[in-house]
Amino acid sequence: MAHREACDRFSADAARDVFDVNVFGFLYFVEELLPDFMSCKAGVIIGVSSLSDCRGFPRSGFYNASKTAMTFLLESLRIELRKYGIRIVTVKPGFVKTPMTAANRYRMPFVMTAEKAAQIIVRGMKKDKRLIQFPQRTVLGTKLLKAMPDALYERIAARKIKE
Ligand SMILES: NC(=O)c1ccc[n+]([C@@H]2O[C@H](COP(=O)([O-])OP(=O)(O)OC[C@H]3O[C@@H](n4cnc5c(N)ncnc54)[C@H](OP(=O)(O)O)[C@@H]3O)[C@@H](O)[C@H]2O)c1
Protein backbone atom coordinates (compact mmCIF):
# COMPACT_ATOMS: atom_id res chain seq x y z
CA MET A 1 0.00 0.00 0.00
CA ALA A 2 1.32 3.44 -0.93
CA HIS A 3 0.31 6.89 0.24
CA ARG A 4 1.49 10.21 -1.12
CA GLU A 5 1.68 12.68 1.69
CA ALA A 6 2.51 16.35 1.81
CA CYS A 7 3.43 18.34 4.94
CA ASP A 8 0.40 20.64 4.61
CA ARG A 9 -1.98 17.68 5.14
CA PHE A 10 0.23 15.55 7.34
CA SER A 11 -1.68 12.67 8.95
CA ALA A 12 -0.27 10.22 11.47
CA ASP A 13 -3.41 8.09 10.95
CA ALA A 14 -2.53 7.74 7.26
CA ALA A 15 0.95 6.61 8.30
CA ARG A 16 -0.62 4.05 10.63
CA ASP A 17 -2.73 2.69 7.74
CA VAL A 18 0.38 2.24 5.59
CA PHE A 19 2.25 0.47 8.40
CA ASP A 20 -0.80 -1.70 9.21
CA VAL A 21 -0.94 -3.05 5.66
CA ASN A 22 2.75 -3.12 4.72
CA VAL A 23 4.36 -4.13 8.03
CA PHE A 24 1.82 -5.43 10.55
CA GLY A 25 -0.01 -7.46 7.90
CA PHE A 26 3.26 -9.31 7.38
CA LEU A 27 4.04 -9.60 11.10
CA TYR A 28 0.65 -11.16 11.96
CA PHE A 29 1.13 -13.58 9.07
CA VAL A 30 4.57 -14.60 10.41
CA GLU A 31 3.15 -14.98 13.92
CA GLU A 32 0.61 -17.50 12.59
CA LEU A 33 3.17 -19.46 10.57
CA LEU A 34 6.16 -19.60 12.89
CA PRO A 35 5.08 -22.19 15.48
CA ASP A 36 4.39 -24.82 12.79
CA PHE A 37 7.45 -23.89 10.72
CA MET A 38 9.67 -24.08 13.82
CA SER A 39 8.36 -27.46 14.91
CA CYS A 40 8.76 -28.83 11.35
CA LYS A 41 12.21 -27.18 11.06
CA ALA A 42 11.30 -26.13 7.52
CA GLY A 43 9.51 -23.43 5.59
CA VAL A 44 9.96 -20.44 3.34
CA ILE A 45 8.60 -16.96 4.05
CA ILE A 46 8.77 -14.31 1.34
CA GLY A 47 8.41 -10.67 2.30
CA VAL A 48 8.00 -7.80 -0.13
CA SER A 49 10.08 -4.73 0.59
CA SER A 50 11.10 -2.26 -2.13
CA LEU A 51 14.17 -0.68 -3.72
CA SER A 52 12.71 2.55 -2.33
CA ASP A 53 14.19 1.54 1.05
CA CYS A 54 17.46 3.16 -0.09
CA ARG A 55 16.63 6.78 0.82
CA GLY A 56 13.92 8.99 2.31
CA PHE A 57 11.96 10.14 -0.72
CA PRO A 58 9.92 13.34 -0.43
CA ARG A 59 6.12 12.86 -0.21
CA SER A 60 6.51 9.15 0.22
CA GLY A 61 8.05 8.96 3.68
CA PHE A 62 5.38 6.68 5.18
CA TYR A 63 5.78 4.15 2.38
CA ASN A 64 9.61 4.45 2.42
CA ALA A 65 9.72 3.97 6.19
CA SER A 66 7.38 0.94 6.02
CA LYS A 67 9.56 -0.68 3.36
CA THR A 68 12.78 0.06 5.25
CA ALA A 69 11.17 -1.56 8.29
CA MET A 70 10.38 -4.61 6.15
CA THR A 71 13.95 -4.86 4.85
CA PHE A 72 15.42 -4.89 8.36
CA LEU A 73 12.73 -7.14 9.83
CA LEU A 74 13.30 -9.69 7.08
CA GLU A 75 17.07 -9.54 7.52
CA SER A 76 16.88 -10.07 11.27
CA LEU A 77 14.34 -12.92 10.90
CA ARG A 78 16.56 -14.55 8.26
CA ILE A 79 19.50 -14.62 10.67
CA GLU A 80 17.47 -15.85 13.65
CA LEU A 81 15.48 -18.51 11.81
CA ARG A 82 18.33 -20.08 9.87
CA LYS A 83 18.97 -22.56 12.68
CA TYR A 84 15.35 -23.76 12.38
CA GLY A 85 15.79 -24.49 8.66
CA ILE A 86 13.38 -21.64 7.81
CA ARG A 87 14.28 -19.56 4.78
CA ILE A 88 13.36 -15.87 4.71
CA VAL A 89 13.44 -14.24 1.28
CA THR A 90 13.45 -10.50 0.72
CA VAL A 91 11.93 -9.23 -2.52
CA LYS A 92 12.84 -5.69 -3.52
CA PRO A 93 11.18 -4.58 -6.76
CA GLY A 94 11.77 -1.33 -8.58
CA PHE A 95 8.78 0.12 -10.44
CA VAL A 96 6.19 -2.46 -11.57
CA LYS A 97 2.98 -1.64 -13.48
CA THR A 98 0.17 -2.42 -11.01
CA PRO A 99 -2.93 -0.63 -9.69
CA MET A 100 -0.68 0.86 -6.98
CA THR A 101 1.70 2.59 -9.40
CA ALA A 102 -1.11 3.55 -11.84
CA ALA A 103 -1.74 6.54 -9.56
CA ASN A 104 1.85 7.84 -9.87
CA ARG A 105 2.06 11.12 -11.74
CA TYR A 106 5.83 11.10 -12.15
CA ARG A 107 8.15 9.26 -14.54
CA MET A 108 8.93 5.75 -13.33
CA PRO A 109 12.40 4.71 -14.54
CA PHE A 110 12.74 1.18 -15.97
CA VAL A 111 9.12 0.29 -15.10
CA MET A 112 8.29 -3.36 -15.90
CA THR A 113 5.15 -5.45 -16.25
CA ALA A 114 3.81 -7.46 -13.32
CA GLU A 115 4.27 -10.64 -15.40
CA LYS A 116 7.99 -9.95 -15.90
CA ALA A 117 8.38 -9.12 -12.19
CA ALA A 118 6.64 -12.39 -11.25
CA GLN A 119 8.99 -14.35 -13.55
CA ILE A 120 12.05 -12.79 -11.90
CA ILE A 121 10.71 -13.56 -8.42
CA VAL A 122 9.95 -17.20 -9.31
CA ARG A 123 13.40 -17.62 -10.94
CA GLY A 124 15.04 -16.17 -7.80
CA MET A 125 13.06 -18.55 -5.59
CA LYS A 126 14.14 -21.54 -7.69
CA LYS A 127 17.78 -20.44 -7.30
CA ASP A 128 17.33 -20.25 -3.48
CA LYS A 129 18.23 -16.55 -3.42
CA ARG A 130 17.88 -14.75 -0.09
CA LEU A 131 17.49 -11.36 -1.79
CA ILE A 132 15.61 -10.90 -5.07
CA GLN A 133 15.98 -7.34 -6.33
CA PHE A 134 15.25 -5.99 -9.79
CA PRO A 135 15.59 -4.48 -12.35
CA GLN A 136 19.38 -4.34 -12.27
CA ARG A 137 19.54 -0.76 -13.59
CA THR A 138 17.37 0.46 -10.71
CA VAL A 139 19.43 -1.60 -8.25
CA LEU A 140 22.53 0.21 -9.53
CA GLY A 141 20.73 3.57 -9.27
CA THR A 142 19.77 2.92 -5.65
CA LYS A 143 23.38 1.97 -4.83
CA LEU A 144 24.51 5.32 -6.25
CA LEU A 145 21.83 7.16 -4.27
CA LYS A 146 22.95 5.41 -1.07
CA ALA A 147 26.60 6.24 -1.69
CA MET A 148 25.82 9.93 -2.36
CA PRO A 149 26.65 12.38 0.43
CA ASP A 150 23.46 13.15 2.39
CA ALA A 151 23.62 16.91 1.81
CA LEU A 152 23.93 16.42 -1.97
CA TYR A 153 21.03 13.93 -2.06
CA GLU A 154 18.80 16.29 -0.06
CA ARG A 155 19.58 19.22 -2.39
CA ILE A 156 18.76 17.16 -5.50
CA ALA A 157 15.57 15.71 -3.95
CA ALA A 158 14.38 19.18 -2.83
CA ARG A 159 14.92 20.49 -6.39
CA LYS A 160 12.89 17.55 -7.78
CA ILE A 161 9.80 18.33 -5.66
CA LYS A 162 9.86 21.96 -6.90
CA GLU A 163 9.69 20.74 -10.53
N1 LIG B 1 4.28 -1.86 -7.97
C1 LIG B 1 5.50 -1.45 -7.65
O1 LIG B 1 6.15 -0.69 -8.39
C2 LIG B 1 6.14 -1.95 -6.38
C3 LIG B 1 7.49 -1.64 -6.16
C4 LIG B 1 8.10 -2.08 -5.01
C5 LIG B 1 7.38 -2.82 -4.08
N2 LIG B 1 6.06 -3.08 -4.31
C6 LIG B 1 5.34 -3.84 -3.28
O2 LIG B 1 4.73 -4.98 -3.86
C7 LIG B 1 3.57 -5.33 -3.09
C8 LIG B 1 2.41 -5.49 -4.03
O3 LIG B 1 2.13 -4.21 -4.57
P1 LIG B 1 1.41 -3.99 -5.96
O4 LIG B 1 2.16 -2.97 -6.72
O5 LIG B 1 1.12 -5.32 -6.57
O6 LIG B 1 0.11 -3.26 -5.48
P2 LIG B 1 -1.42 -3.48 -5.84
O7 LIG B 1 -1.55 -4.07 -7.19
O8 LIG B 1 -2.09 -2.20 -5.54
O9 LIG B 1 -1.83 -4.58 -4.77
C9 LIG B 1 -1.81 -4.25 -3.43
C10 LIG B 1 -2.32 -5.41 -2.63
O10 LIG B 1 -2.46 -4.96 -1.27
C11 LIG B 1 -3.78 -5.21 -0.84
N3 LIG B 1 -4.23 -4.13 0.02
C12 LIG B 1 -4.18 -2.80 -0.21
N4 LIG B 1 -4.74 -2.13 0.81
C13 LIG B 1 -5.13 -3.06 1.69
C14 LIG B 1 -5.78 -3.01 2.96
N5 LIG B 1 -6.11 -1.83 3.52
N6 LIG B 1 -6.00 -4.16 3.60
C15 LIG B 1 -5.67 -5.33 3.06
N7 LIG B 1 -5.06 -5.46 1.85
C16 LIG B 1 -4.81 -4.33 1.20
C17 LIG B 1 -4.62 -5.26 -2.09
O11 LIG B 1 -5.75 -6.05 -1.86
P3 LIG B 1 -7.04 -5.97 -2.81
O12 LIG B 1 -6.65 -6.50 -4.14
O13 LIG B 1 -8.02 -6.81 -2.08
O14 LIG B 1 -7.41 -4.52 -2.86
C18 LIG B 1 -3.68 -5.89 -3.10
O15 LIG B 1 -3.71 -7.28 -3.03
C19 LIG B 1 3.39 -4.22 -2.06
O16 LIG B 1 3.99 -4.62 -0.85
C20 LIG B 1 4.18 -3.07 -2.66
O17 LIG B 1 4.62 -2.16 -1.68
C21 LIG B 1 5.43 -2.68 -5.44
Keywords:
163 residues, alpha/beta, Rossmann fold, three-stranded parallel sheet, two-stranded parallel ribbon, 6 helices, 56% helix, globular, binds NADP nicotinamide-adenine-dinucleotide phosphate
Radius of gyration: 17 Å
- Note the run of SSEs as H and E: HEHEEHEHEHH
CATH architecture designation: 3-Layer(aba) Sandwich
Averaged pLDDT? 95
Number of domains: 1
What characteristic shape results from the CA principal axes?
globular
* β-strand amount: 5-15%
Main sheet strand line-up: 1-2-5
Largest sheet: 3 strands, parallel
Proportion of residues in helical segments: 55-70%
The CATH superfamily title: NAD(P)-binding Rossmann-like Domain
Unreliable segments of 5+ consecutive residues: none
Q: Give the CATH topology.
A: Rossmann fold
Structural class: alpha/beta
Tell me which oligomeric state these chains represent: single chain
CATH class: Alpha Beta
